[in-house]
């Protein structure tokens, strides 16, 4: 489907104006065309309806939050005038409210004013009980959101919040224009194709054309608040292919200026970089490649109850012995070395950073132990059948293991399948196009939210350096289901009231050391109760053309966070 803006003629003319100085600023669009490639193609431009980083990043050129995180993990004001604190009066002394004030004179790309009504609308859009919102965990404990005047918004919490910055901060929670999305609330949210494919924003660019699972074309926003920016008048955001071809298009052929998420054999990547056309950049944040364990039954015979709590527990992955054996059979150090090189480290935790939050309680997994894994299964009564596959009470240890299509991920799958075969586990491998897997299309059976498999593998991370909202991803209410349009972050369908209670406790705990202790406890529950099996702490690896200036790789927010500052070297 194509979508074109009604304002594009004028916008393109302004954005691609001559490169002469405009007052004291250089003219917007002076550097012409910028070409970006994400081998996982964008499927939608609304982060509230997708958990895919490729969709969040494609949206970030257009949509912006009140505040975000810079490349060092520091929170910086964005659409807001400043960061509210207790000291400046923006956060109540009892920590029960936060008041944000918008910068003066903000306008949408269509020229209309940005007001506090848009902020209130956005919060209510996500919190609407009749719809599903992928970012709902960030709005936990909010009692009300109200406009105090045209520029000020007060968020009142149901309890004191020592960290009151989860909602509307970071690339996953930008501000939507009320006028555009007013008829797209609740159950109507996913049906608003024009709005979700072409949002009106405040960012440096606006959408000219969107082809789902393929290409986004942007033009410079003529009403962008920073004079002379962006330097580029047009952007092509190309999706599809694979990580290796994306890397090659920047490092060897020079066809593209920026390539994201280069999950490529590190030796191959170094050979490409030797061509001298581009630079590989990397940094460690909170990304973990992990196996998500389906704790519910994915049997197709269950129909609409498949992979839901209503469909019942998984026939064997709810057995702690099975999950522990699967984990011990894996050589994480080899996976990190072969697949990621210096950009990968073996990990046993879903929270790998910052250091204060990192648990050591699960380090057993750092050493592969096939013999021990076999002994655990023997003791639990899972015995080899005639075909060598372990079984118990008529249930065979046969796993459907899915992930997105990518050479490194398929290599990982092959290695894991081999190791699991050595402990008597049968494994069927499935790979799905990344645009579909991470796309959030409620009609597709192959999304990572629907999880119609036993095990699925992908990487996830959190904005900023505080994991409160991230740990909230695995509370019971975050389980995707037909009732919430399969949106939510709790892919394993993990539901433990004790975990939910810890999430509530974390939300009201102020001292950093105490917060860290709670996060470690929550991390350990997820690991030891089998919600997931972490594999590799991944550094983010991207590449940019040597001619592209201003790139500051950000592992705490969107990689597109400062695209307004990118320019072409003269």
Name of the CATH architecture of the largest domain: 3-Layer(aba) Sandwich
Please state the CA-atom Rg, rounded to the nearest Å: 24 Å
Number of domains: 2
Do you know the CATH topology of the largest domain?
D-Maltodextrin-Binding Protein, domain 2
Separate helix tally: 15
- Low-pLDDT stretches are 1-25
The biggest beta sheet reads:
11 strands, mixed
- Overall number of strands: 23
Instruction: Please state the structural category.
Output: alpha+beta
- Tell me the name of the CATH homologous superfamily of the largest domain: Periplasmic binding protein-like II
How would you sum up the global shape?
globular
How far is the first residue's CA from the last residue's CA? 37 Å
Which class of the largest domain in CATH terms?
Alpha Beta
Work out the helicity level: 10-25%
What is the typical, i.e. mean, pLDDT? 93
């Amino acid at each position: 489907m194509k979508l074109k803006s009604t304002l594009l003629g004028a916008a393109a003319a302004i954005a691609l104006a001559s490169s002469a100085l405009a007052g004291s600023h250089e003219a917007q669009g002076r550097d012409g065309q910028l070409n970006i490639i994400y081998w996982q193609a964008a499927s939608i431009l609304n982060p509230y309806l997708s958990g895919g980083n490729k969709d969040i990043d494609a949206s970030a050129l257009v949509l912006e939050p009140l505040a975000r995180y810079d490349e060092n993990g520091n929170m910086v004001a964005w659409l807001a005038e400043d960061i509210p604190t207790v000291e400046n009066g923006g956060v109540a002394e009892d920590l029960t409210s936060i008041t944000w004030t918008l910068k003066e004179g903000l306008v949408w790309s269509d020229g209309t004013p940005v007001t506090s009504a848009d902020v209130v609308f956005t919060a209510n859009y996500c919190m609407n009980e009749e719809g599903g919102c992928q970012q709902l965990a960030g709005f936990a404990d909010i009692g009300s959101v109200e406009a105090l005047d045209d520029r000020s918004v007060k968020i009142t919490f149901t309890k004191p919040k020592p960290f009151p910055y989860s909602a509307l901060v970071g690339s996953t929670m930008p501000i939507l224009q009320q006028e555009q999305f007013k008829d797209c609330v609740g159950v109507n949210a996913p049906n608003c194709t024009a709005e979700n494919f072409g949002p009106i924003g405040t960012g440096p660019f606006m959408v000219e054309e969107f082809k789902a699972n393929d290409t986004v074309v942007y033009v410079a926003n003529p009403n962008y608040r920073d004079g002379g920016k962006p330097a580029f008048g047009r952007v092509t955001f190309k999706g599809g292919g694979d990580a290796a071809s994306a890397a090659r298009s920047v490092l060897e052929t020079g066809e593209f200026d920026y390539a994201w998420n280069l999950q490529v054999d590190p030796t191959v990547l170094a050979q490409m970089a030797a061509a001298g056309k581009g630079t590989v950049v990397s940094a460690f944040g909170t990304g973990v490649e992990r196996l998500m364990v389906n704790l519910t039954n994915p049997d197709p015979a269950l129909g609409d109850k498949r992979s839901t709590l209503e469909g019942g527990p998984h026939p064997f992955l709810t057995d702690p012995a099975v999950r522990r054996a699967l984990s011990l059979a894996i050589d994480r150090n080899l996976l990190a070395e072969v697949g990621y090189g210096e950009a990968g480290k073996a990990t046993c935790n879903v929270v790998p950073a910052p250091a204060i939050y990192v648990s050591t309680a699960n380090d057993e997994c750092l050493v592969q132990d096939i013999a021990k894994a076999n002994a655990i299964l023997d003791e639990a009564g899972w015995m080899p059948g005639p075909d060598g596959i372990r079984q118990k009470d008529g249930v065979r240890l046969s796993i459907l293991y899915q992930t997105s299509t990518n050479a490194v991920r398929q290599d990982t799958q092959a290695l894991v399948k081999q190791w699991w075969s050595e402990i008597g586990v049968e494994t069927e491998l499935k790979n799905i196009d990344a645009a579909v897997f991470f796309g959030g299309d409620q009609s597709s059976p192959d999304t990572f939210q629907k999880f119609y498999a036993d095990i699925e593998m992908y990487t996830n991370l959190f904005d900023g350096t505080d994991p409160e909202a991230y740990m909230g991803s695995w509370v019971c209410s975050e389980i995707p289901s037909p009732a919430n349009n399969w949106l939510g972050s709790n892919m394993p369908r993990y539901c433990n009231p004790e975990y939910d209670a810890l999430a509530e406790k974390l939300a009201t705990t102020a001292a950093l050391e105490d917060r860290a202790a709670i996060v470690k406890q929550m991390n350990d529950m997820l690991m030891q109760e089998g919600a997931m099996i972490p594999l590799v702490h991944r550094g983010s690896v991207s590449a940019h053309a040597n001619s592209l200036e201003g790139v500051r790789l950000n592992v705490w927010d969107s990689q597109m966070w400062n695209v307004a500052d990118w320019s072409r070297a003269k």
